[in-house]
Amino acid sequence: GSPSAGVPRQRGMAEAEAAGDAGEAPAEEGAELTAVIGATVPTGFELTAAEEVQEKLGSASRISRDRGKIYFEVPARGLPQVHRLRSVDNLFVVVQEFRDYQFKENKEDALKDLEDLVKKLPWTDPLKVWELNNSLKKKKTKRKKHNLQSTASKEKLNEDGQEEGTDQKDTSKHEGCAQNAAGVEPTSGQDTEKTEGVASRNGEEEEEEDNEQSDAKDELQAGSGSEAKAGDTNTSEGEVKVLKFRVTCNRAGDKHSFTSNEAARDFGGAVQEHFQWKADMTNFDVEVLLNIHNNEVVVGIALTEESLHRRNITHFGPTTLRSTLAYGMLRLCDPQPTDIIVDPMCGTGAIPIEGATEWPSCYHIAGDNNPQAVKRAANNICSLLKKNESKESSTSLGIPLDIIQWDICNLPLRTGSVDIIVTDMPFGKRIGSKKKNWDLYPACLMEMGRICTPGTGRAALLTQDKKCFAKALSRMGHIWRKGQTVWVNVGGLHAAVYLLKRTWERAEEKRSFW
Fold this sequence. Notes:
Layout: E1 10-11, H1 26-32, E2 34-40, H2 46-57, E3 61-63, E4 69-75, H3 79-83, E5 90-98, H4 107-120, H5 124-143, H6 145-158, H7 163-166, E6 177-182, H8 189-200, H9 205-219, E7 244-252, H10 260-275, E8 278-279, E9 286-293, E10 296-302, H11 323-332, E11 340-343, H12 350-358, E12 363-368, H13 371-392, E13 401-405, E14 420-424, H14 434-451, E15 458-463, H15 466-475, E16 480-490, E17 493-502
Parallel strand pairs: 7-8, 7-9, 11-12, 11-14, 12-13, 14-15
Antiparallel strand pairs: 1-5, 2-4, 2-5, 3-4, 5-10, 6-7, 9-10, 15-17, 16-17
Helix pairs in contact: 4-10, 8-9, 11-12, 14-15
Region (Disordered): 1-30, 138-236
Family: Belongs to the methyltransferase superfamily.
Main location: cytoplasm
């Protein structure tokens, strides 16, 4: 690191150039190229994600001090498996990471240092990884050209009023945080102004949510068709295809003299100069990420355009749960083969669908008292069956999942017959009201306790109405014992996932007055 950047420790993790430069074929290159992958995960589920990475990829992860991110190393040929991880929202390849970057006090100097950084970064391998990732995406696009049109139009329809459905990046940090996208000139005027507001004040959730929404629209289906190579590769007519890019800066911490906007703008200017790429906010080929969290600076290149958490759901409801969060909650309960897993308030079915996909040797039962929700969930299940069908061609494999309309306080299930309950309790912000929760929560916990197997049964319950939940739980202490609590962010609302263990106490049988 040159003294001007004032960086004591810097590690370009992907700097070891491939030793044998012999093979031109991408296969050879892929064989020795390694990548440090950064993944954003639902806050609070970093350990869960790290366990999944260890289990499926055999790589150890480092959990960032910046909540909601983990880093791990994989050979580039392992990229397809990386995309199949269930607990990650967005993926990027790390260009370089600075654990203790010293920002100058003066704004101009601090920004100048960031500009100077661009020339010194080890871009070569990460860009190769980006290219390889693109060719993977193209193969996939070819396979599902026909489905793509339909889902894209559906997702456009769904953008409005879907909070969890669209939070591309979980940017709700504890410190003031701003998420911002800027090419060289702030093209998307209002977007940028909005985030400046967030950057200078310590961000309130509502603002961050707006921010995510506007960002999500940008990110939808961006540049998926681009036949771009990172080098200046000639297109058929022999003219050079200039790559389009944008810089997205996430900044958190109160010690910085600049906003995320200014950082993105100046860093972006230097990127443009260095690569001769063209800045484009919405239709970009390369998204360069600049993550600044106090003194931790990570430069990366995005590998996912659209958050992986939308993978199962085609019919969104007003509060569709991110499937990455659904996966994390299920994983907390450690499902064993033949377990019966119930989601008594399934909404659009994110939890049971994720469950049936990842734990096909369990039986998943979902229900909701709202006919509209049941219909949406049924549609999502149908979409999943169709998806499985096209994979296996002729025969569609069924999925061990049933959906029922029922009354949460009066479930048509035998006492003690259920192993695991995983559900997203009504928040009272978006659906239902807090007032109702005071009656609903104790009744729910009691009915869940009744159907759950004494001694071995367990439940993972997500709620934002923590006061009410605690009160209800204290009244049900004879049936439920509280295990760990995971604090999460759900579309800007602070929520908690409670892991409960069923005591050995026998629950009351159903009595006629219910």
